[in-house]
Design a protein that fits this description.
With about 170 residues, the protein is of the alpha+beta class. Helix content is about 25%, strand content about 30%. It has a single domain, classed as Gcn5-related N-acetyltransferase (GNAT) (Aminopeptidase, 3-Layer(aba) Sandwich). The protein starts with 5 loop residues before the first strand and ends with a helix.
């Protein structure tokens, strides 16, 4: 995977129609919803762009709340009984031409760094991932993500582990 990629917020000049990944709902999201969601404040999308302008990957982040009921008992100790804030990696995909070349890892680590860069006046406790399907869960678990009980496609990692993971 080339080191000359640019990572930048999605905008209306990006050629989203040319983006194709292995999961049609994920390229449909980028084409039809990501820019609107950014404009309305529902989520923010970052794209990986080649020098020629082609989008080869993206991720979308948004806030999320996590309740004690969703977490395993070992995570609940000392937590308040109300929902706690987190950052959700709602969508992530790579172009089919570059799949398996490390861009997914680069995007995940960048998403984690983006979460850690949130101003210190805004706190969050968990980085949460909505895995598209069971096929991609092992990708996340090798970084230390754990599935939430009762929802094997929703994985999480505490902020301290995120900090360690991005130092890889």
């Amino acid at each position: 995977m080339s080191d000359d990629l640019r990572f930048e917020p999605l905008n209306s000049t990006h050629p989203v129609a040319a983006f194709v990944c292995s999961k049609p709902p994920l390229h449909d999201y980028l084409r039809k919803h990501a820019l609107q969601n950014s404009a309305t404040g529902y989520s923010g999308t970052m794209v990986a762009v080649e020098p020629a302008g082609r989008i080869v990957g993206y991720f979308s982040l948004c806030p999320v709340s996590v309740t004690c009921a969703e977490l395993p008992s070992e995570e609940v100790k000392g937590m308040p009984k109300y929902p706690v804030p987190g950052v959700l990696l709602a969508k992530m995909a790579v172009h089919i031409d570059v799949a398996g070349k490390g861009l997914g890892t680069r995007l995940l680590l960048l998403a984690m760094r983006e979460a850690l860069a949130i101003p210190p006046s805004i706190k969050w406790r968990f980085f949460v991932v909505d895995a598209f399907d069971a096929e991609v869960v092992p990708f996340y678990t090798r970084f230390g993500f754990k599935a939430l009980p009762g929802n094997p496609l929703r994985l999480y990692m505490g902020v301290k582990m995120v900090t360690k993971a991005v130092q890889i």
